[in-house]
Amino acid sequence: QVQLVESGGGLVQPGGSLRLSCAASGSISSINVMAWHRQPPGKQRELVARIGSGSNTYYADSVKGRFTISGDNAIPTVYLQMNSLKPEDTAVYYCYINRIRGITLYEYWGQGTQVTVSS
Questions:
Q1: Are residues 94 and 5 in contact, defined by beta-carbon separation less than 8 angstroms?
Q2: Hey, how many other C-beta atoms are within 10 angstroms of the C-beta on 54?
Q3: In 13-88, where does DSSP find H-type helix?
Q4: Residues 6 or more apart whose Cβ sits within 8 Å of residue 112
Q5: How many other CB atoms sit within 10 Å of the CB of residue 58?
Q6: What confidence category does residue 29 fall into, taking pLDDT thresholds of 50, 70 and 90?
Q7: Tens digit of pLDDT for each residue in 32-78?
Q8: Mean predicted confidence (pLDDT) in 80-97
Q9: Do residues 112 and 93 lie in contact, with contact meaning Cβ atoms separated by under 8 Å?
Q10: Could you give phi then psi for residue 92, rounded to 5 degrees?
Q11: 8 Å CB contact between 81 and 17
Q12: Around Cβ 16, how many Cβ atoms within 10 Å?
């Protein structure tokens, strides 16, 4: 079973930057979507950014202009560059990849990495 391993989380001051990385432990063919979700304390998990197979991207309104998602299907890896961080960005961030084979959707999640924005 392929696993996703995130890194790059930590404590940062408001206005600072972090770069999250996610690497798969093995190959994943026919990748459809690579994404980052987050779960703030006491809240539900939410989609932060997504990149599709055609390199089209989506960002939640709350992070537009501040976060940038990128990825490499060949490895596969996915990154989230986070700039101008705010305290409300504090959350556990989860890497997500899915692939489609025939009519079956396969989903992969990372274990999560904590991002804390605080002075």
A1: no
A2: 6
A3: none
A4: 6, 39, 92, 93, 94
A5: 14
A6: confident
A7: 999 999 999 999 999 999 999 788 999 999 999 999 999 988 889 99
A8: 98
A9: yes
A10: -90, 125
A11: yes
A12: 14
